[in-house]
Each structure stands twice: as C-alpha cells, then as structure tokens.
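Hi all, long-time lurker, first post. I run a small reading group and we've been trying to get comfortable going from sequence to structure in the token notation. Rather than ask abstract questions, I figured I'd post a concrete chain and ask someone more experienced to write out its structure so we can walk through it together at our next meeting. Sequence below, copied exactly:
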Amino acid sequence: MNSAFGVLMVPAMRIECDLCAVRDWQLGDDAALVAAANNRNVWRNLHHRFPHPFTQADARGWFSLLAAMPEPTHWAIEVGGVAVGGIGVDLGEGIYAKSGHFGYWLDEEYWGRGIMTVAVRVVSEYALSHFGLVRLEAPVFAWNPASMRVLEKAGFEREGILRKSVLKDGQLIDQVLYALVQ
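-- Answer (accepted) --
Happy to help. Here is the structure in token form:
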C-alpha cells in the first residue's frame, strides 16, 4: 500500500480464473449489479442486508459502503466483462480477529456452470493469506444444497447445523455451517 498526501492507496484486486475474474467493484457496475441482484431467487439465499427488490438506490448505497472501507473485502465476479455476482468476507474483530464470515451470490442466469466454485476457491485462498485469517465461516440456508456443494468442492467442511436460526421469506429455517480452516 502506498500513501500519497495522507491518502491510503490500495492496489486494485483482480484475480483471473478459468471461468471468471474476481475484481474490485467499479462505479460503472451499477446497471449490471441491479440487473443481476434484482432477483427473488438470488435474494432468497442471502443475508438480510441484501434487499429485494434491488434498486438503483441500493446499488448507490452499496458503492457508498465500499468507498468507506479502508480496504475492499467484497468483490465483483465478472464474466465476459460484466459483473454478474459478488463475493466477499466480513472480517472478524476482537477475539474473532482471525476469522471471517464468507459469502457470495451469482446472477441466476449463471448458476450451474462451475463459476462460483472457482470464485470461492480463489477468493477464500486470497482472503486467508491477504488478511492473515485462519478461519472462514460460511453458513448456508438448509434449502440451498447447491451452495453446500460449492463450498465442499472449494475445500470447506461441514461443521454443524444451527437449528431454527434464521427467519427468511416467512419461514424459520436451519443453517448449515461450513468452514475452511488453515
């Protein structure tokens, strides 16, 4: 990292994969973000911070949140030059400083192509080494076995079930906790 005139300069992150690239979000991604994220099937599997419908105002809010970060921890998944999903880690604090909460999503049009497995593999490796983490946790809603397969293919191990831990889409459901530990 460089410092110029008291401003912290963070080099751009870009990882090329066989099926995609993972890179920093850019302001020009707003239309693609809204197009990919404004999908009930995507929303149904995500944290409550991810709204539905997903609007242009939500995209602006997302980019404001990213701009306030000292260093990006959430990135775009790019296919064919277009942002079609997101992936990232919420870094732990205090006694959780060596752990991160890992999450991802992908435009439904791109499901089932192996894109997310590749992205999860490269970003989990990057996050562990770059941020000095030893553990990434990824809870998955019990109704989402495809996401569980993605994590397993990327080296995450199932650790347990958090019974009736989430109220999503009007249903009280279990989460299956996966983790990657160095």
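A couple of things your group might point at:
Residues 115-130 form the longest helix (16 residues).
Residues 1-6 have pLDDT under 50 and may be disordered.
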